[in-house]
Fold:
Amino acid sequence: DDDEEEEEQLQRKEAEVERIRQQTLEREKIQRDRELKQIEEAEEKHKQREEARRKEEARMKEEAEKHHQLAQQRTDADLAQEQETEKQQAAEAKRLHLAEEQQKIRERMAEEEKLKREQEREKEKRRKEEEEIETQKRRMEEEKRERQRQQEQKEKEEKQRNNLELEQQQQQ
Structure:
């Protein structure tokens, strides 16, 4: 009866270990899916920014062409003044564009760093879970060996008792 109970306990513990392992696998899958989604979102954002930048460049080019056509109709002095203004505007636009690109790079790096930290946390969490599973397995093995040892000891003592009783009966 005790053996059956111990066997049931062992089976429950093994089932618990398997359940934990399945949960760990499921969490890893969810984490991978989440990481893929984040990467896809980042790529989509990047495409949208690039598209907006191309549109802005096309608009600015079109604007510059309009200015150029108007400039041809003006006097040389007006033209020189306008060219200087356009140059300043272009320089300002370029400066703004560079600042935006630097900001995007900083954001992307921060996002990658955040993702990396999250991956490290998950990795550490999985390592601890694996460690816990190993500890449980070892504990179960030790308990099993101890039960076996006790059983063998019990049988040995029983055998000695039987031999002693037999000797006493033979002496009488």
In short: The chain has a mean pLDDT of 93.
